[in-house]
Amino acid sequence: MADTTSSKLAPSHRYRSFPLNLTVATFLTLGASICLWLASFSAPFIKRFYYLRVDDQEGVKTKFGTFGYCHGGEFEQCSSRSVGYVAAMMTPIGGSQYRYNIIPNSEGLTGSLVLTPIAAGLATIAVIWLAVSWFRRRGALIGFLLAFVAAIVAVLSFILALVAFVVAHRRAKRAGNPRYGAALWLHMSGAIALLLALPFLLLAWLRQRKNARQSVVTTTTSYRP
Q: Which pLDDT band holds residue 138 (cuts at 50, 70, 90)?
């Protein structure tokens, strides 16, 4: 009579820690991608999202976003959507209105904001890859690398945006009342979320490697007379 027994680790035991790290990392990366996409589609796409808003003395509002700006009072008009634009304001000097740039080399600095949707796209690809890896026993390394590159691009683009709009905030005080908008905080949140996701992804990958080595199934067959 043959009695065949198979000893192997239960899936819930083998992958208990890996899904936890992977789940946290996936949701952090997903949240980061959403924040970065919202920042990317700030004014002139979505008028309520902007990096900087300046209210002049006549109540006219100017909102600066990723690919342009919106200007006006009750009825706003937006610029054409382009990579890099001139961020300028009008200021009264001696009874006349003068136009001046509130961001030095504004076309270059605002043009660097194109890195924001690039980071958002990389984060989105990372989320898709991590979601697929839930149903596989590998893939965390590629997700980690994608999120790592996305984090670098997001942090770099946020630093450039911060430099541009902090300078703009100071210069715009001559023309009116400047205030930072939601796009700046969304951009910052996306970059931070990606940075927080990296250690979880690294732990998930290390756990995955360990589980792969321990996944050898031992089959013992014994025969009874």
A: low
